[in-house]
User: What shape does this take?
Amino acid sequence: MSDILKSLKGRDFLKLLDYSPEEITALLDLAADLKTRKKNGALTEWFRGNNVALIFEKTSTRTRCAFEVAAHDLGMGTTYLDPSGSQIGKKENAADTARVLSRMYEGIEYRGFGQDIVEELAKNSDVPVWNGLTNEFHPTQMLADLLTIREHFGKLGGIKLSFYGDCRYNMANSWMVAGAKMGMNITLCSSKDYFPDEELTEQCRIIAETTGGSICFETDPMKGAENSDVIYTDVWVSMGEPEEAWEERIASLRPYSVTAGLMANASPDAVFMHCLPAFHDQGTVIGRKIFEKFGLREMEVTDEVFESGQSVVFDEAENRMHTIKAVMAATLGVPEE
Assistant: This one.
């Protein structure tokens, strides 16, 4: 085990800004090792007898399953606290919640709203706190995506990734950070009204100068795809936003839908990525509502692209579990073998 990996014991995992490129690489290496072990049927029940609390103020399929399976594989029990199962923010503040849970559990995951909440949990916890998603950042998704890209291209440095859609929230923010840290070339494609926070953008550009990466913006979707190795998109309306937000987003972001034509403008071996869930057909209640109201059968990505051979979205989804397992294992302390 590397000294870098050893140094992560006891650390929180709140945002990739807190981690060096070398530390991120160590987590990816550990995730790849844990993935190989699982595929080979090798047990990694290193933390038998430990338990972790999973606070979900925003529900999720992939994040919950990834944390629960990863914890089980590591020998740990889990307690899932959904929006109705926790008093955080209602009858008990984040600081008190952290002080209670850290007396009972060896780790705490939080998925919810402001980054300030998970930061407050970490400040008052005696055990590692892991960010499963906030409005500002989604670091566990980034690790899964980075591992997926590395698996397909054999590297991260120099890879061009173009992100399409609303660039003001957690996914675009996280890609600026992850790309800057790992020496990638990130292009955010959207209308100017949907560009990200200037302060974070400048911070990421400063980081990118030290790693050989870059942060660029483009309003022309076809131009943004040129020479891209990865075309990435996300849902147009964030979880918890009212249905009224759809009309504005659809009008503004419709030109940035990922189509077969857009993919053809990228590199010949480009892959399509999406953190899921995706509105690529009418197989969901929301998808059908959008069709009834706006006449759209697909939104941020067409079904043709989503189901194509270029799509690696389910590789990403699987890698959520392997990378989350690596985060928990590293911050709890991987044992010497």
In short: The first strand starts at residue 51 and ends at 56. The radius of gyration is 20 Å. The chain has 14 helices and nine strands. Residues 102 and 272 are 40 Å apart (CA to CA).
